[in-house]
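Hi Y.,

Following your request, here is the sequence exactly as I used it, all 184 residues.
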Amino acid sequence: MADETKATDAGQRYAQSLFELTIENNQLTKVEADLKSLRAMVAASTDLRRLLESPAFSAEDKAKGLTAVAAKAGFQLLTAKFLGLVASNGRAGDLMGAITAFVEMSAQHRGVVTAEVVTASALTAAQLKGVSTAVASALGKTPEISTRVDPSILGGIKVRVGSRLFDASLRSKLDSLKFALKRA
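Below is the corresponding structure, written out as tokens. Let me know if you'd prefer a different format.
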């Protein structure tokens, strides 16, 4: 399965347009909060994920659904219009990537780097603080960290900052060992 949080070219363009509008209208933090909230809703709801991903729903149905979600959640008007536009243009599948791109643009605008941390089990507050400190010292910037649990990595940690991936997972170490043994 493709990584739906990776920004496509279309998602990047939508994110850039929204970013410019939020700067012009002085709504950057509010719209960013809305989009982060929507991202959490999509992660938590299989029905919402299905609405975005399934070709069985028309662009019009997706637009109506996203607009209803935005209204129910109390999103900014700009956010609601953006969601409706993306869906009605048949780009609902690019929405999560657009959100990721927007959040990265916003963080860059604030002078903060975004880092996605993937672990096999949830991190404690102390562990998260340690990761944050390590990322900050490595990059020289304050990190904004989002965490995700992926049991398939077996153990260790993966940290993605922009296009760079620091992979210290047990899965990758085992894969490397397997490859080395096959070559021997």
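Residues 19 and 102 are 6 Å apart (CA to CA).

Thanks again,
Q.
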